[in-house]
Amino acid sequence: MVHGQAKGRSAIVLGAGMVGTATAWHLRQRGFDVVLVDRRVPGNETSFGNAGLIQREAVMPYAFPMDAGRLARIAFGMGNDTAWRARDLPTLAPMLARYFWNSLPGRYDPICMAYERMVRHCLAEHQAMAAQANATGMMRAGGWKQIFQSQAAMKTALHHAKEVAERFGVPHTVLDGATLAREEPTLQRQLAGAIHWTSPFAVSDPGGLVKAYARGFEAAGGTLATGDAQTLRPHGAGWRVTGEDGDLDAETAVICLGPWSDMVLRPLGYRFPLFVKRGYHMHVALDGALATPMLLTEQGVTMIPTPSGLRIATGAEFARREAPAATRQITRSIAIARTLLPIGKPLDAAPWRGARPCLPDMLPALGPCARHPGLWLNFGHAHQGFTLGPVTGRLCAELIAGEAPFIDPMPYDPGRFDRQRLGVLNVAT
Ligand SMILES: Cc1cc2nc3c(=O)[nH]c(=O)nc-3n(C[C@H](O)[C@H](O)[C@H](O)COP(=O)(O)OP(=O)(O)OC[C@H]3O[C@@H](n4cnc5c(N)ncnc54)[C@H](O)[C@@H]3O)c2cc1C
C-alpha cells in the first residue's frame, strides 16, 4: 500500500543491497516516484553472501577487542576469527585508531544504546516488508546457536548474554554439552555447550530475500534501473544519474552503496572514515542436518544450513576493499568445521568474498549531506546491514518525507564526522 502523501516528489536510490532496496521501498510507500539504481541485479553483493541472520540479539555492536590475550592471538595470526593483511594496515590505521577509541567503555556504552534502538525493530520491520512481498516463507524462526569448545569461552559469553537479557530484554537459553548434543545430533563430538539466541530469524538465501523485496518495490510502482552510481551529479535543483537507458533525474538522491559509498562521496568533497571488514563463505556437502545455524565462537566460524549445502562463513578480515582475496581464513574455517561435522566435498568452485561497510563509531551514516541539498546517506551498517536495512530504510524515508521519525536519528547523523576531533563522538545517551 502506498501512503500517497508525497505526491510529485521523486528520488533516486543508489545501491540495491538490503539497505538501498529497503530505503527505496519505504520511499515508494510514502508516494515518492522512486528509481532504484544498481550496476548489477539487486542483492548480489554484500547482501548476497552473508550469514542470513536477522540478528535481534545483536544489540551491542562488535567493539575493537580490548583483551590483551585476544589481541596477541590476532596479532600473531593464531586465531581464526579475525585476520589482517599486513600491507594494508598503514592505510587502515587512522580508522582502526578511532575504532579502538570508540570501543573504550565510556564511549562504547552510548553507542550500544544508539545501536539497540535500531536493532529492537528488526524483526517487526522485516516481517512487515516480507508480508507485503510474499516472502514470509523465506525467514525461519527459531534463532541460532553460539557454540563453545571451552568452558572458559562460554563463561565469558554468558556474562554478555546475561547483560543483553537484563538490559535489553533479549531472550536466550543456555545448553550444556549433553543438551547441545541431543539438539544437534549431527555434531560429531560433545562441546562445552551453547547459548541459543531464540528470537532471531534465519534466511538461507539472503540475496533472494533482497530480490523478493525489490520485486515488491516494483509491484508497488517503483522502478529498477541499471547504471553506474559514479555518474551522480547535481542537475538543476536536484540530481542526475546516467542509467543504461538514459539519464534519470530526481529531486532527491540517496547513497546506499554500502562498502562503495566513498566512491561517490569523495568526488563531492566528503571524506568519511569508511573501512571494510571482509568476509568469505563457501558451501560444502553435509551428511546430516542442523536444527539452527551455529557460530563456533572461539574460531569465528558460522555454519548455516541452506538448500545449496552447508554455508561456512568467516569472521572479519582487515584489508583494503579491493585487495586480492586471501583464502587462508576460509580454508581454516572449513577445516575447523570438519572437526565438528561430517562435511563432504566443497560445492563452490571458489570462495565468495564480501566487505562489511564499517565506520569507526560502529553506527551507520544516515541523514542529509551537509553541503548538498537533496543528497542523503544511508550506509555503514557493518556486521548487521542485513538485519538493519528495513529499519534504517524506514528511518531514512521518514526523514526525507518530513515525517516524525520512529527512532531518534541524531546518533546516526553523517554530520557527526565533521564535528569529530580525534574520534570524539556526539551520541545521545
Ligand atoms: C561473511 C559475512 C557474513 C555476514 N553475516 C551477516 C548476518 O548474518 N546478518 C547481518 O545482518 N549482516 C551480516 N553481514 C553484514 C551484511 O552483509 C552487510 O552489512 C550488508 O549486506 C550491507 O548491505 P548494503 O546494502 O549496505 O551493501 P551491499 O549489499 O553491498 O549493497 C551495495 C550495492 O551497491 C551497488 N554498487 C556499488 N557500486 C556501485 C556503482 N558504482 N554503481 C551502481 N551500483 C553500485 C552494489 O552492486 C550493491 O548492490 C555479513 C557480512 C559478511 C561479509
UniProtKB/TrEMBL annotation:
GO terms of molecular function: oxidoreductase activity
Report the SUPFAM superfamilies cross-referenced here: FAD/NAD(P)-binding domain (SSF51905)
Q: Which UniProt keywords apply?
A: Oxidoreductase
GO CC annotations on file: cytoplasm
What are the FAD dependent oxidoreductase domain coordinates in residue numbering?
A: 11-399
- Please state what the protein is called: FAD-binding oxidoreductase
**Keyword Ubl conjugation appears in the UniProt entry:** no
